[in-house]
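TICKET #2291
ISSUE: user wants both folds in one file
ATTACHMENT 1:
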Amino acid sequence: MGLVVQKYGGSSVADAEGIKRVAKRIVDAKKNGHQVVVVVSAMGDTTDELIDLAEQVSPIPAGREFDMLLTAGERISMALLAMAIKNLGHEAQSFTGSQAGVITDSVHNKARIIDVTPGRIRTALDEGNIAIVAGFQGVSQDKKDITTLGRGGSDTTAVALAAALDAEVCEIYTDVDGVFTADPRVVKKAKKIDWISFEDMLELAASGSKVLLHRCVEYARRYNIPIHVRSSFSGLQGTWVSNEPQGDRKVEQAIISGVAHDTSEAKITVVGVPDKPGEAAAIFRAVADAEINIDMIVQNVSAASTGLTDISFTLPKAEGRKAIDELEKAKTAIGFESLRYDDQIGKISLVGAGMKTNPGVTADFFKALSDAGVNIELISTSEIRISVVTRADDVNEAVRAVHTAFGLDSDSDEAVVYGGTGR
């Protein structure tokens, strides 16, 4: 038996009973002959509660101290889990991200992993121990400061460790039985997917599917680490994410893999931009210099009478204020007239590698939205994805309409969400 990396989300270790249940599952894997490395998130909504507390103390907390605060949640989880495993008669050692050798850049609150040097983890495994690592965190390469990887960063920690340790599989345990054709909190008849390619999963994750973080899937694809997404609350097989179906499983690539949605974005429209070379570059350089990622971009045809155009783009709501401030600073240099900000939008995406060779998918998608009375504000496409921006209030109805239109509704039991608030 080889080495397995398991990651447990906050809902799986939300309380003492949950921690003991997870400890038993880990010990079972050890008894089956595996070397086991565990990555753990903070308990329940601990991270959200720490964020709320920080905002009460300081409206704009300093990045370094904010990271120091947020990493406390995972340290609590890892220590309690190690205690629970020892209580079952097995040896476990817990490690912070820095102790585990997770080296990052210096960008606080959303650092990127540069390298993983898991010397202490290998030593613990060689001594017969179970290694438990605090997810979501690392240490900066230059200043040796504690950093965090952004929301969902524990998934990335797990896959990065799996790659560094040459693990057989990275098991991501969550509060649902796998990856579904839509968020089961919104679409009760969503179907579990048995296998999905890295390519499709990347698009779903980038489009708002919360079950796996985009960077995690990207890392797994780069190092060809199979991911098994499953529930810590049941013993059911979950969803395999890999280049090819695992073992003897022969699973045909679906035409449509699923419908994802995202209500965490806002839209900025730069009004009255001179329609000449270099203007768009100046706008997006100002945003990039503020280290803000943008998603969809649409530029209108310029008005013949004025020679001016409008450029709209979407970005995370949390970065909206900063983007507006940076663009206002560059207003004179760029020469646009004004800015409009809208945070009451939502994005719906249809994802599937099969749409490349199946005419009519786009028409069916827009007909489903039309029949549901949903108005479209922006459109973006790739070879395997169609995304639209609508009003936030229309998102849930739009997701359900599209899911039904493409025959993705399950005829059997409704999808189960075992825990978590989805916050």
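ATTACHMENT 2:
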Amino acid sequence: MTDDDPAEFAAWLRLREAADAAARAPEFVALLRDRPAAGPLAVHDLGCGVGSVVRWLAPQLPGAQRWTLYDRDAALLARAAGTGELRADDGAPVQVRTRRADLTRLTAADLAGAGLITASALLDMLTAEELDRMVDACVGAGCPTLLMVSVTGRVAFTPAEPLDAELAAAFNDHQRRTVDGRRLLGPDAVDAAVAAFDRRGVDVRRRPSPWRLGPDDGELITAWLTGWLAAAGEQRPELAGPARAYARRRLDQIAAGRLRVELGHDDLLVGLG
């Protein structure tokens, strides 16, 4: 799923919100809860989309919070700003403001005063150079960074089919494609991020955060599968024919409640010490 159509992309973000929330590593939230805070916690959320992270995380953290939500898309920021009143775990107030910005150009100065930096489903859309700049900004801010639900390229279907691996490889290559002169990291982004933080001597914790989708997730599986197959076919046009028959079988399985999908992601908690 791309962000070429803002309304369609916003709908996709809303559709995946519950699956993202269920996938994220709960132990990282527990570690963040245990950190003492001298005053309101300033959280900077990079690539906020429709505001999924603040809705998920703010109510799990104690104490007053001030969130700054960043995105390049004004329409997404408007949706995020409409999240409504939020409260911390202990009932303390949560303030939310938005800022339109090019995430690939943020610096440590932009994040000054942050007590926590967050991002979800962002890393794969960056280039190696952009990721390096983002890591510099996060390290320079001098606070923990929580990077969540970053794709790893692994997908497992139940029941399995012989074409699964070939389609997955084509999709992963598509995610590494060059767009407007930018070569995206795609499923290599998590390893690249870990290496970038390691080079700067910053502690990194890594945990799996896979989507585990089943009979109750038919709408999400259908939307994801449609985009997955379209990208694989675009990358390797010779797969388009076999993919059509494959899609019919998979859609029949979804309708019958017989398809399960595990889609690999990882979470990173950086700089907690």
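RESOLUTION: both attachments delivered.
EXTRA DETAIL ON ATTACHMENT 2: The first strand starts at residue 41 and ends at 46.
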